[in-house]
Amino acid sequence: MSHLERLKKMMTGELPGAPIAQVLGFEVVEVEEGRVVIELEASERLHNPMGTLHGGILGDMADAAMGYTFVSTLADDELFTTVELKLNFLKPVFKSKLRADGRIIKKGGTIGLLECHIYDEKGSLVAHSTSTCMVLKGNANQKRERNS
């Protein structure tokens, strides 16, 4: 099964989401090659001591949306790793359904540059993130299957 097919099965519930998605409660809601959207119901359970959504949750959402986006473009024998992540917080979130839209800016043979916009339920931009990902080639899938 290709990476893109696996993501589509996660979206429809035929396959479970990544463990971190299950812990935080975000779901893949749109999948196409080079673009993935995830959603999360942000509530008090994810707040920091200040009473707003913990910034790390936005970081996890952005990283997941961009990671899923990047993996949607990979060959079956390729995996990837994130080598850099930058996140701008643009407004506080208290309680809202969040939507993280991950997209490819540029992808080469080894390195990809991605971005993610995270919106609240009113369509207001709450965070912007960029990421650099590196393709891992060769027997990467064999290593993943061995560790499963």
UniProtKB/TrEMBL annotation:
Q: Is-annotated flag, keyword Hydrolase? A: yes
Q: Name one GO molecular function term.
A: hydrolase activity
Q: Which InterPro entries match?
A: HotDog_dom_sf, PAAI_dom, Thioestr_dom
Where does the Thioesterase domain lie? 50-126
Q: What is its EC number?
A: 3.1.2.-
Q: Which keywords does this chain's UniProt record carry? A: Hydrolase
Q: Which NCBIfam families match?
A: unchar_dom_1
Task: Please state what the protein is called.
Answer: PaaI family thioesterase
